[in-house]
Design brief:
11 helices; about 30% helix; alpha/beta; globular
Length: about 400
């Protein structure tokens, strides 16, 4: 593929999400026939030694220590933002205004005002052919895509219930260190924004309906934790130090919801579900069928067809070539893993940029989720009062 068809990529941040995104940029053109060839031009990080080591490990050509320098480069066509939430708005708006396509990790921002400003910048940029997308990666799990198809085809009939849980346990230990994800100034919220945003997006994506109102409660189980040994860390794992500080975000979020088409929703997001590692579960019930998905068994979709004479849920192994994305991967029956959804994200984003179409989920989709998170926080602050989503 000639240089004119190259898509120069610059990424900001190189911790957990940075590693996942890097693997996707490396892998996508090797398994999928992409209309543009992604080139991993430059990686940005504040620590010169750390970013250089990460670039060598993850496959980036060059490094810089400031995001603005990355945005200004002529060889960067797309900016991939893998930084804490408090930086998303400033970086994304600058990149879009500079004519760069943007992929931004979720949640879109820390506040509603920041998310609205990002959407405005995306709309300005789209008028000039510049594209933007927010990284709700679970949409691109093949079993989730199949679930979306079944619902869109009317196989569940009239939708009535959606219940979503996102259960993790990595904060159960009260000595787990106070990383940036536990600081409201950096993360915006705790379990609510970190994993609850995925739950909200997945419910709205599958049902095709928007959350219109919530009654919510938030809880912080451990109010003080040790700071990480050796200073701040961007990862999920760190050693506890000697001094402690306050946890300023929620550990768990639970809320009821109504959706725009009449569906009733029940949502739970917690990082205190002992024994649950990454259990993103969703069940949708309709008048003629139901489906259920659990990310801890990510290659399987449970489907109940009310018109089937043999009653009971059917276990569908979503590993066949005719299933979404699977034709590019392994022989039938060979499962995929966590990292593959990030590769599918790159495939869809590059395809949209090449075709001149708006990718999904858009910044507007990210804003829709942000409005729900905002309503949840307002409801929890008023004794779980029923609160409309603006």
């Amino acid at each position: 593929m000639d240089e004119a068809r190259t898509l120069g990529v610059g990424m900001i941040g190189y911790a957990f999400m940075g590693a996942a995104h890097s693997q996707a940029w490396r892998t996508a053109p090797r398994f999928f026939d992409l209309p543009l060839a992604p080139r991993m031009r430059v990686l940005a990080g504040r620590d010169p030694g750390g970013v250089k080591a990460a670039a060598e490990r993850l496959g980036w050509e060059q490094t810089v220590t400031g995001w603005a320098e990355l945005v200004d480069r002529d060889d960067v066509d797309l900016v991939d933002i893998c930084t804490p939430g408090h930086t998303h708005a400033e970086i994304a708006i600058a990149a879009l205004d500079a004519g760069k396509h943007v992929l931004c990790e979720k949640p879109l921002a820390n506040t509603l005002a920041e998310a609205e400003a990002m959407v405005a910048a995306a709309e300005r940029a789209a008028a000039h052919g510049v594209r933007s997308m927010v990284g709700f990666t679970y949409r691109r799990v093949p079993a989730v895509q199949l679930a979306r198809q079944l619902i869109a085809d009317g196989r569940l009939g009239e939708l009535r219930h959606v219940r979503v849980q996102y259960l993790q346990d990595w904060l159960v230990d009260p000595l787990a260190p106070l990383t940036w994800r536990l600081d409201k100034q950096l993360a915006g919220s705790g379990a609510l924004g970190d994993i609850g945003s995925h739950a909200v997006d997945l419910a709205q994506f599958l049902t095709g309906q928007a959350v219109t109102g919530v009654a919510a409660t938030l809880e912080t189980f451990v109010a003080e934790r040790p700071y990480p040994a050796g200073g701040p860390t961007g990862g999920l794992v760190a050693r506890p130090g000697e001094t402690t500080g306050p946890v300023t975000v929620d550990d768990a979020a639970v809320f009821l919801a109504r959706l725009s088409g009449g569906v009733l929703g029940v949502f739970e997001a917690t990082r205190f579900a002992t024994g649950r590692k990454n259990a993103l579960r969703i069940e949708v019930n309709g008048s003629t069928g139901s489906l259920a998905f659990d990310f801890e068994d990510m290659n399987v979709l449970q489907f109940f067809d009310g018109d089937d004479d043999v009653q009971g849920f059917r276990r569908v192994q979503v590993t066949e070539p005719e299933h979404p994305y699977l034709a590019a991967w392994w022989p039938a029956g060979h499962g995929l893993g966590y990292e593959h959804a990030f590769t599918h994200q790159v495939v869809d984003l590059v395809g949209a940029i090449s075709a001149g179409t708006d990718p999904a989920p858009s910044f507007a989709d990210g804003l829709a989720v942000q409005r729900v998170l905002d309503a949840v926080e307002r409801s929890a602050a008023t004794d779980s009062r029923w609160t409309s989503v603006d």
